[in-house]
Design goal:
heterodimer; A: mainly alpha; Cytochrome C Oxidase, Chain A; two-stranded antiparallel sheet; B: mainly alpha; Four Helix Bundle (Hemerythrin (Met), subunit A); about 65% helix; about 0% strand; elongated
């Protein structure tokens, strides 16, 4: 049913704690420039969210092109060059424009100062700069597309990338600029975490998503500069024709791989750590039970960040590097799985004897646990030298990284989006459509990618436009799955969009969480809190009880937040 | 940087005796809501830059020890002008350090002199480096790639340009905040208890100086 704005000062059926129609950060100022030049982290987060989801749509359409092309052997939609450009575009957009900025930029920016009870991040202008740098990077990607596209794969391996006539320099420049966006966001989050915590919030009283964002930020600041120099040298090589990476000119192609993966492996931990942080929040809140093993989960985030720097060689097992180096990287790769496993066990222990609510964010969180486990375990297959020699550059790898990046990060992103949506917009989405989206995406995703493990172990190489007829059935199943997944995303988008038009007005605390963002109104005021919020244990839910009249949780001791 | 107020807004403090460190806030940010924020920011920034630099150095060393002969034919030895630019950069660091030491004692004149000296020398470094580039690099370094291999265009010159060029870009970029800090100093914004911009400048410029020493040293030794 619609909820028309009657007059300023409130809406009908408005629970206390909801500020739509009253003063909040969304209506604090008006006009294009008040958004484009905003210093409010919440507005910056929203702008990022819209931009990043637009990029996701672009990358997703490229994925649908790839999957449609592969539904039958030989040419289906276009020729081999088109196909190469499509999977390059899919990879580059998804990695650099969507998933690396992803959770920190679109959700972290909104929520991090709220979690700390702070008014904003440490450097609000730097935050705005990060956003506009993202936009510049996106513009360069579009320029590359418009000037002939790129067909090197998102990994830009030399010598092909240093000699091909496709539009490499614009896209590499775009990625270079995006790197700055990432570095500045990381710097901002690190300093905010160190300096803007309230007096009574020690490091071990922070919500775990803070530990996740902090560890991610460290990787962003330290690893991304290595990508910068890699891309700079690639541009120099293309522009000036000297041999750094090109063997024909006296360079070393494996050097490019070392440089590239020294960044890109830690980058995958930039992708997954914030996702794991969100899952810690969701599992605890929707089990109404204190997170199990807080200290272990906190330290495991830091451990993943550190270990992530020393395993890059596992992308290069077949590159011709020495056996000794291969063995060292394989051993280290196995050890990097341990902190992730620690988290999974702690989440399961949190669920055990919890009081589970099956709301949409929880469905996504449970999906994460299943899908990330599969993705993580299959990473061990790939980390084993003897097996990787067979599986490298096959669909097994494609399935593995989609399970961790999509089944992991994207699923957690959606869970976090539905979770914080009431806080960001003051609206509740419909649980029916939300749950439907979770189910469709789970089913579609598994249909698309589980069969690719089989495809890969049967020998189908990745990035191939054409294939033998014996693989056709697997590809057909996978493509059907892709379309079901796309439908799931449309249902999710519908659910969230409809909430803005017809959604119930959200209370301050619809889920009963105790981290500080739930101690303020939905949506929050411009300066986040009225007065100084006092933080206690963010996982102690005992102070909140369900109130039917509010359709949310209210504090047992005090009046509900006005 | 966190905001602050002019000298008229706080009672003028008595300069602290040198052996009593508890009187002055550690980062020179007394009375600020979140002291040390900007300083930590600059330190983290330098950590990232350190990774950039060491990665670049490894790239250079890898190629250098894989290429035979080295230096490639047609390449002149490093110009002695780089010793001059090293001295200029050292002077710049000294200037900022002088400014920092003086403002801790409340000496506004010393602060301004130190910052102006540092700014001028940073500019001088860029000029000295431009001359070094002009003298050392072959004339056609920026020609588009040709079908035939040109001896002057080789990994040594490219790495030289990339490494010293990146360093110079950070010097150039650093002139902007240094100019802002200098402007603030001349407006009397800093006091003996509040000088975050000066401290942050010192961290950044000393860092650039150390990077330069390592860079020049490595190029000199392996050249």
């Amino acid at each position: 049913m619609s909820t028309p704005e009657t007059k300023r000062g409130g809406l009908p059926h408005q629970p206390p704690g909801n500020t739509l129609g009253k003063e909040n950060y969304l209506n604090a100022s008006r006009g294009f420039l008040s958004w484009a030049l905003t210093l409010d982290h919440k507005r910056i987060g929203l702008m990022y969210l819209v931009s990043i989801l637009t990029a996701f749509l672009g990358g997703g359409l490229a994925a649908l092109y790839v999957r449609t092309e592969l539904i039958a052997p030989g040419q289906t939609l276009g020729d081999a060059d088109m196909y190469n450009q499509a999977f390059t575009l899919h990879g580059a957009i998804m990695v650099f424009l969507f998933i690396i900025p992803g959770i920190p930029a679109a959700l972290g920016n909104f929520v991090l100062p709220l979690l700390l009870g702070a008014k904003d991040v440490a450097f609000p202008r730097l935050n705005l700069a990060s956003y506009w740098l993202w936009v510049c990077g996106a513009i360069f990607a579009v320029i590359s597309l418009a000037t002939g596209g790129v067909d090197t794969g998102w990994t830009f391996y030399t010598p092909y990338s240093s000699s091909t006539t496709t539009s490499v320099i614009p896209i590499v420049t775009g990625v270079f600029i995006l790197g700055f966006s990432s570095i500045f966001t990381g710097l901002n989050f690190i300093v905010t975490t160190h300096k803007l915590r309230p007096k009574n919030m020690g490091w071990f009283n922070m919500p775990l998503v803070m530990w996740a964002l902090y560890s991610t930020a460290i990787i962003q600041v330290l690893a991304t500069p290595v990508l910068a120099i890699t891309l700079l040298l690639l541009i120099a090589e293309r522009a000036m024709g000297i041999g750094i990476f090109d063997p024909a000119l006296g360079g070393d192609a494996v050097l490019f791989q070392h440089f590239f993966w020294f960044y890109s492996h830690p980058a995958v931990y930039i992708m997954i750590l914030p996702a794991m942080g969100i899952i810690s929040e969701l599992i605890a809140v929707f089990s109404r039970k204190h997170i199990f093993g807080y200290t272990f989960i906190a330290y495991s985030s830091v451990a993943i960040a550190i270990f992530g720097f020393i395993v890059w060689g596992h992308h290069m097992f077949t590159s011709g590097q020495s056996d000794l180096l291969n063995m060292i990287f394989a051993a280290l790769t196995f050890s990097v799985s341990i902190p992730s496993a620690i988290k999974i066990w702690n989440w399961l222990a949190t669920l055990y004897k919890g009081s589970i609510s099956w709301d949409t964010p929880m469905l996504y969180a449970l999906s994460f646990i299943i899908l990330f486990t599969i993705g993580g375990l299959t990473g061990l297959f790939l980390g084993m030298l003897a097996v990787d020699v067979f599986l490298h550059d096959t669909y097994f790898v494609v399935a593995h990284f989609h399970y961790v990046m999509f089944g992991g990060t994207v699923i957690a992103f959606l869970g976090g989006l539905f979770y914080w949506w009431p806080k960001m917009t003051g609206r509740m989405y419909s649980e029916t459509s939300g749950r439907l989206s979770a189910a469709l995406i789970f089913i579609g995703f598994n249909l698309t990618f589980f069969i690719q493990f089989i495809l890969g172990s049967q020998g189908m190489p990745r990035r191939y436009f054409d294939y033998l007829p014996r693989y056709e059935f697997y590809h057909q199943v996978s493509t059907i799955g892709a379309y079901i997944t796309a439908l799931g995303f449309m249902v999710a988008a519908y659910s969230l969009a409809m909430s803005l038009v017809r959604g119930k007005l959200a209370p301050a605390n619809p889920w009963g969480g105790n981290s500080l963002e739930w101690h303020t109104t939905s949506p929050p005021p411009l300066h986040n809190f009225e007065g100084e919020p006092r933080s206690d244990d963010p996982y102690d839910y005992g102070d909140w009880k369900w109130d039917d009249s509010v359709e949310g949780f209210v504090r047992k001791d005090a009046e509900a937040t006005a | 940087m966190t905001g602050g107020s002019g000298p008229g807004d706080r009672p003028r403090p008595v300069p602290a005796p040198d052996d009593d460190p508890t009187v002055v806030a550690p980062d020179g940010e007394q009375g600020v809501e979140h002291p040390g924020t900007g300083t930590l920011g600059v330190q983290i920034f330098c950590a990232g830059l350190a990774f950039l630099f060491f990665a670049s150095l490894i790239g250079y060393l890898w190629i250098r020890f894989q290429t035979d002969p080295w230096p490639p034919e047609g390449v002149k030895p490093l110009p002695w002008g780089m010793v001059v630019s090293t001295a200029v950069l050292a002077g710049c660091s000294a200037g900022i350090q002088w400014a920092l030491v003086r403002i801790r004692k409340g000496d506004q004149k010393g602060l301004r002199a130190g910052l102006a000296f540092a700014f001028a020398l940073a500019f001088g470094f860029l000029i000295a480096q431009s001359l070094n580039w002009y003298n050392w690099l072959p004339a056609d370094i920026l020609d588009r790639r040709t079908a035939t291999y040109v001896p002057e265009r080789n990994p040594y010159t490219v790495f030289f340009v990339v490494l010293t060029g990146l360093h110079a870009l950070h010097i150039l970029g650093g002139l902007i905040p240094l100019g802002v800090v200098m402007g603030n100093a001349f407006k009397g914004k800093y006091t003996w208890a509040y000088y975050p911009g000066v401290k942050q400048s010192a961290i950044y410029w000393h860092f650039l100086g150390v990077i330069w020493l390592i860079l020049y040293g490595v190029l000199f030794i392996t050249g």
